[in-house]
Amino acid sequence: MGKNSGKAVTIFLVLIAIILVSLTAISVFLLIKQVQLRENAEHSLSQLQTAENALRAELAEVKKQKEILENKSKEAEAKIENLLEELDLAEGIRDEVKKENRELKDSMELLTQENNEMKASMSEKEQETERRVSELQEQLNVSLERNKSLEEKRQELEKEFQQLKEKLQSLESAETPVPEAATEDLAANVDLEKIVVSAGDGSEGQVISVDQEAAFVIINLGERHGINVGTELSIFKGDSYLGDVKVTRVLPEMSAADFISPLTSQDVGEGNLVKIKQ
Prior knowledge:
By secondary structure, the chain is an alpha+beta fold. It has helices at residues 2-174, 180-200, and strands spanning 204-211, 216-219, 232-237, 240-250, 255-259, 273-276. The protein has a six-stranded antiparallel β-barrel with strand order 1-2-5-4-3-6.
């Protein structure tokens, strides 16, 4: 019995030792695991803190980007509003330009019409001017022919005067009485010759034509009588002074002159005396 009890105690003690060893091993294992778990937890916590810091930084960056995007959004909205205003302004300007273009087109059409009317009027005036020039040329030709005829007549009268003068000189040298009729004829011829010479000298002439519409006169004085363009002439009706004219065109035997106010074409007639103004 005693041996069995000792064995039982020994076995019990062995079992207790084994249990203690096992508990110690378990405690050490658990301690090691706890240390590992704590280290792992601390490492995880450190990683979490690092991640948290990174997330905080990212969050701050995101907030910053958000603010930037909000500012850009506001700027974009402002630009859109400005663009809309500019678009409205551009549409208004476009409508105004269209209106101005229509007005310019109407003005161009009106100017074209006026230009065509002016061309037609100028063409009519040109034709009328050509007709008047042709008429004046015909009048000048007639006046030249008339002046030529008067010149021939004057030369004939000068020749007759010279013959009468020679005859008178021969009669005076012979101291022969001259019949009264011959004296009257001689005096008549001498008076006529004086008139012709007075009308044909370089300072006096006559109005041979008056153009009422164009308001100018034609005078039987020309370059041969010392008349130039710009020469001023005085016109008389008998002994009455009527006014002055200014030469605008000169031919050898005649000239054309415009009236100097207050003299008009109504005041002058054919045959009026003309003198070079002194």
